[in-house]
């Protein structure tokens, strides 16, 4: 099949995914598998090769991701049930002062968003938002937007979040580098789209959240973990993974100690040790029984099944793009445009985010579209590409994004106001993230 025909099949496959997920409301797992079969049939792949590509793609993506996501979910759950978020907020407000509460809530969202999913972070932090707003005398929008953007930025850019981790694995990027680069690049994006933008619009809009969320009484101090223990537990796996990357840079890959450093700093080991640490610091040490911890772990792991299925199907979609020959067609077309590969990765993720809605499926689909081009840039660090995809997926959230409706429910805003606050702030964060990444890439090159 000619290049034009291959690209037409790809466009129709993407349109099929959008139609099935947005209009027909088919689950993303089924929609992605449908697209896989569509591509296989219309590019003339042998039937046995179609099945082999799907099996290889799913297995290749999930082999490493499954334990990482399960372990990360447990750490997030331990932080959720321990009151760690409220402890972080109180300490940050005390350090920065009430006048800078909007900055404090952005930082809290940025830190708390590392181990917990975006939606879980909203559920966790929204009741706290009212305590803080009343105490500081600030608009809920002024401090709510920074908190939400802090959560969303790390959700898209920083492992061990599912999509960010899947992108890193799909691109064969060093996860420690992706974490480090994502945290560095994401902070200015969250700062400008959060506190700076939030202060500009804070007094122009109002929130009308559900009454049951309007918590006005803070949790007693004695019931909260200490700030140091909470921060250490959240950052512990990141410290191990980033340290492995830094030590490899200074010692070299051939150093004898790297055998042990690579083992301890691998995502699976780092998160396994973080789970054990969280069981003690946020669980047993605070009076919880092992039976309670077992129950919390089961609750945390359960929702991973649906996410893993979507990621696995996305892996199959990426694999069948390569095996069908569409990958080479994408490469020839995109190379003719002579676009900076980081800008290209950002654009692909942003377009998919706008079209499909969910950040996870947008990011993982973007990997399959960008990977064929990366072979022509052998000196490009794939960790930078991973962050570019994450930055692109932050923005342009609107009515086809499940997260958009989740925020609407908790913020209680009119649709038009939500576009002017949440959608606009996500887009600002996405654009600033790209600019920050391009500048950062110049500094480290």
TrEMBL record:
Record-linked InterPro entries: Glcn_transporter
Signal peptide: none
Membrane-crossing residue ranges in chain numbering: 6-22, 29-47, 59-82, 103-130, 136-158, 178-197, 227-247, 259-280, 300-321, 342-370, 382-400, 421-444
Alphabetical keyword list: Membrane, Transmembrane, Transmembrane helix
A GO-annotated cellular component: plasma membrane
Keyword flag Membrane: yes
Lineage: superkingdom: Bacteria
Single GO MF descriptor: gluconate transmembrane transporter activity
Protein name from the UniProt record: Gluconate transporter
Species for this entry: Lucifera butyrica
């Amino acid at each position: 099949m000619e290049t034009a025909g291959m690209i037409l099949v790809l466009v129709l496959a993407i349109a099929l995914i959008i139609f099935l997920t947005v209009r027909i409301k088919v689950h993303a797992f089924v929609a992605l598998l449908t697209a896989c079969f569509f591509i296989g049939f219309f590019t003339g792949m042998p039937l046995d090769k179609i099945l082999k590509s799907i099996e290889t793609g799913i297995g290749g993506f999930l082999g490493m991701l499954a334990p990482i996501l399960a372990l990360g979910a447990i750490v997030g759950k331990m932080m959720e049930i321990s009151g760690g978020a409220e402890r972080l907020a109180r300490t940050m407000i005390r350090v920065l002062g009430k006048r800078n509460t909007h900055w404090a809530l952005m930082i809290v969202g940025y830190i708390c968003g590392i181990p917990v999913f975006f939606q879980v972070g909203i559920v966790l932090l929204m009741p706290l938002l009212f305590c803080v707003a009343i105490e500081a005398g600030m608009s809920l929008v002024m401090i709510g937007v920074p908190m939400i953007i802090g959560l969303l930025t790390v959700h898209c850019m920083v492992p061990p979040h599912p999509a960010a981790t899947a992108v890193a694995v799909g691109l064969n990027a060093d996860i420690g580098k992706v974490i480090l680069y994502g945290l560095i690049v994401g902070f200015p994006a969250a700062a400008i789209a959060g506190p700076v933008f939030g202060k500009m619009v804070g007094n122009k809009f109002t929130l009308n959240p559900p009454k049951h969320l309007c918590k006005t009484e803070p949790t007693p101090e004695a019931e909260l973990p200490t700030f140091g223990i909470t921060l250490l537990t959240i950052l512990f796996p990141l410290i191990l993974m980033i340290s492995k990357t830094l030590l490899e840079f200074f010692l070299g890959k051939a150093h004898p100690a790297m055998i042990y450093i690579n083992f301890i700093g691998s995502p699976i080991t780092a998160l396994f040790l973080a789970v054990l640490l969280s069981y003690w610091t946020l669980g047993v040490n605070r009076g919880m029984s092992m039976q309670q911890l077992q129950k919390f772990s089961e609750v945390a792991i359960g929702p991973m099944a649906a996410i893993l299925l979507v990621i696995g199907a996305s892996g199959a979609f990426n694999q069948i793009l390569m095996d069908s020959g569409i990958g080479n067609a994408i490469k020839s077309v995109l190379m003719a445009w002579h676009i900076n590969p980081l800008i290209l990765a950002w654009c692909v993720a942003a377009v998919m985010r706008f079209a499909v809605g969910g950040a996870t499926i947008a990011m993982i689909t973007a990997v399959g579209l960008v990977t064929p081009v990366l072979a022509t840039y052998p000196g490009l660090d794939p960790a930078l590409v991973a962050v570019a995809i994450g930055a692109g997926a932050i923005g342009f959230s609107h009515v086809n994004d499940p997260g958009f409706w989740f925020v609407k429910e908790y913020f209680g805003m009119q649709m038009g106001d939500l576009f002017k606050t949440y959608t606009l702030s996500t887009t600002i964060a996405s654009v600033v993230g790209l600019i920050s990444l391009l500048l950062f890439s110049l500094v480290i090159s």
